[in-house]
Amino acid sequence: MTEKKIPYKIYIEEHEMPKEWYNVRADMKNKPAPLLNPATHKPMTAEELGEVFCDELVKQEMDNDNRYIPIPKKIRDFYLMYRPAPLVRAYCLEEKLQTPAKIYYKFEGNNTSGSHKLNSAIAQAFYAKEQGLKGVTTETGAGQWGTALAMACAYLEMDCKVYMVKCSYEQKPFRREVMRTYGADVTPSPSMTTEVGKQILAEHPGTTGSLGCAISEAVEVSSKDPGYRYVLGSVLNQVMLHQSVIGMETKIAMDKYGIKPDIIIGCAGGGSNLGGLIAPFMGEMLRGEEEYKFIAVEPASCPTLTRGKFAYDYCDTGKVCPLAKMYTLGSGFIPSASHSGGLRYHGMSPALSQLYHDGYMEARAVEQTEVFKAATEFAKVEGILPAPESSHAIKVAIDEAMKCKETGEEKTILFGLTGTGYFDMVAYGKFNDGEMQDYIPTDDELQIGFNGLPDMSDIDE
Amino acid sequence: MTEKKIPYKIYIEEHEMPKEWYNVRADMKNKPAPLLNPATHKPMTAEELGEVFCDELVKQEMDNDNRYIPIPKKIRDFYLMYRPAPLVRAYCLEEKLQTPAKIYYKFEGNNTSGSHKLNSAIAQAFYAKEQGLKGVTTETGAGQWGTALAMACAYLEMDCKVYMVKCSYEQKPFRREVMRTYGADVTPSPSMTTEVGKQILAEHPGTTGSLGCAISEAVEVSSKDPGYRYVLGSVLNQVMLHQSVIGMETKIAMDKYGIKPDIIIGCAGGGSNLGGLIAPFMGEMLRGEEEYKFIAVEPASCPTLTRGKFAYDYCDTGKVCPLAKMYTLGSGFIPSASHSGGLRYHGMSPALSQLYHDGYMEARAVEQTEVFKAATEFAKVEGILPAPESSHAIKVAIDEAMKCKETGEEKTILFGLTGTGYFDMVAYGKFNDGEMQDYIPTDDELQIGFNGLPDMSDIDE
């Protein structure tokens, strides 16, 4: 097949869309470590997890064996509303860079939630609905996950209670209004609607909240009403599973045109996008069928993979959720006020952490000013204003393309463009005004987070 | 062809994309009236227009004869960046409404400018560049047109000077930052950078500006520097021509699947979207080949077609631009502070005005609360948060679908979904809070606008 025939945008046909999710854990020799009960340090049982997640999601969370999980028809119908997502050949960027590299990106931002989060939101809401539940609760910081969940719940006519970190609630009123337009009940956190919220407000009357506090409120509300479950937009095995639709579609599109990527790049916060994008390619590598170079890109201000520890840790700052074995900076790590939004998480998907630990993946940390520089360059030639998170992947994709320019290699580079930056213009404004600063935590600062890791000496890791 | 085979989203192939724009004026028996010099009331000559627009655009503006105008390769390359736009079968909306009607919409919002404006922005910037000009100037209110022009200029590496109405500049900082990210020079209007701006600021020190004032500043800047031309995002014949790409793509997609629309609906402000969407269908009707029902939808607060006069009028409140014969509420008409953004224009494309006058098109005025109700309903089932402008078309499409439900008719309805509402969340917020009000001007209020129409008794209309 000649290169000429590859269009700017590859849309697979609707009948070609994946009918199954791919479960990378089935092909991993070293499985991700189980979630532990934070009180007993014993593996969480299905019953215990069932108090937090609905039953089908518990099964998916614990399933390390089944390679493929069928996507229910109702979820596939919802996917048809905004998928297939285009696989874009970045001809304009290639020309601008004058690189012999061939650059592709899977664009997940062409839906109202503005990111890939919708892929798992609809799945989690669907299984809750199937179980006869009335609704779901969650927290949101930047707001992409909350918006995605609100959209999914509107479609399924379910209740959606979102605890939004108060400073975001006030600073991002548009995100809040999108959620409300989709019928979600959005509460600024901390609030007087929960015991934990009241307690925090009594202790810190002027606080503008934190993600940890919002999680605690969302979990409390779901735990007190058997008609609700708590849902989460990243980190979990089930989320990686649902997000595999990104990679599956990408692979189908590439196979149609005989394209094989040499390098696959994704930004990494909790790992939902990266895990989804690389899933089927990683599967081929784990089965020894193909070789790929995978690169996880994280902010230098929150360097989970590049400078974190591989250890059991709390998933939330409130320490109410199960313990996960993952790369972590410690649940007490406080990232600087960077603009990488969804990437400011102290931990990382246990499955991705294991793969990274076992040497299947590289990681790179990049600073935000160079990320926004790449984002602006990309926006001008490719016509899409990328989310700051996605722009981490753009930065490294450009770096790799420039290496090809030096060496003359015609490598094929694939990266994930997870979303759009329409709600991140405050950050772009700071960059445009030259007021954006970089921040790299010192070893001493990281040590504070590590000091808060739970004592796991009672278990045999 | 069975209905089953029609996908949710029809994307034509890149090689099927239009290579020509369609000029509806070529098929009109009664041509739109020429633009007149506001001082002499004589038709503007090509030379006079050449002081405002670059030469190729003057030719397009005055060309009532050539049915097809080739789209230059460079513009088609740019179109490939964000086109083809999907033609969506609104299966989910149909199911929600339980209507036998088949509803389709052409979605033009999947690009960073958030609307169809990019189709003409790249064309106008391209011809200016071809003529060796350094840049273009324009005004923007809501910001969609300014954003589109900034994107086009960034791609072509041209200067872009945008005068943004000061109140929008302050209330819509995100729009401003998107333009700046694309390298545009954005100035709040009125400003001290122009004579007219200085004069207005001296007279009204605290003013937050108006579109009329911003136009005057943009025109002044371009008139003082031969390296610049002024460009406009709607109303003009050239804009209708460029926007015909919307309808051409739609028709190609429909023809592929043997779909024939019975009713074609578009929102109408200056007419750029409506004119573009209906162009090739209107051509068939004008040539007597097919019958369609065309419906222009406008806000009841700014009822240009339904309650305006068909007369020569000023295109701008500053009265510096040529006179156009069109449906108008008078250049002095001040629409209420509604949220229909781009639809708050006192006039209408001369070509569409003539077609409406000659009975080829219907018009309907709708109130904003019912528009936002339709928008919210649409967003929940179709997953796209529509722009307020576009939602006028949604409202009437739903009305027509509900009529089909009553009569049992299986009509095919096509409407234009011009853009997304991410930058309109203040309006959605007001609607969500029940604080949105409707406003219909009284006859006396409209009379004030009509009183300001120019005295044309010297010419034989």
Automatic annotation (TrEMBL), chains A, B:
<dbReference type="InterPro" id="IPR001926">
    <property type="entry name" value="TrpB-like_PALP"/>
</dbReference>
<dbReference type="Pfam" id="PF00291">
    <property type="entry name" value="PALP"/>
</dbReference>
<dbReference type="InterPro" id="IPR023026">
    <property type="entry name" value="Trp_synth_beta/beta-like"/>
</dbReference>
<comment type="function">
    <text>The beta subunit is responsible for the synthesis of L-tryptophan from indole and L-serine.</text>
</comment>
<keyword id="KW-0028">Amino-acid biosynthesis</keyword>
<comment type="subunit">
    <text>Tetramer of two alpha and two beta chains.</text>
</comment>
<keyword id="KW-0456">Lyase</keyword>
<comment type="similarity">
    <text>Belongs to the TrpB family.</text>
</comment>
<protein>
    <recommendedName>
        <fullName>tryptophan synthase</fullName>
        <ecNumber>4.2.1.20</ecNumber>
    </recommendedName>
</protein>
<keyword id="KW-0822">Tryptophan biosynthesis</keyword>
<keyword id="KW-0663">Pyridoxal phosphate</keyword>
<comment type="pathway">
    <text>Amino-acid biosynthesis; L-tryptophan biosynthesis; L-tryptophan from chorismate: step 5/5.</text>
</comment>
<dbReference type="InterPro" id="IPR006316">
    <property type="entry name" value="Trp_synth_b-like"/>
</dbReference>
<keyword id="KW-0057">Aromatic amino acid biosynthesis</keyword>
<feature type="domain" description="Tryptophan synthase beta chain-like PALP">
    <location>
        <begin position="82"/>
        <end position="419"/>
    </location>
</feature>
<dbReference type="InterPro" id="IPR036052">
    <property type="entry name" value="TrpB-like_PALP_sf"/>
</dbReference>
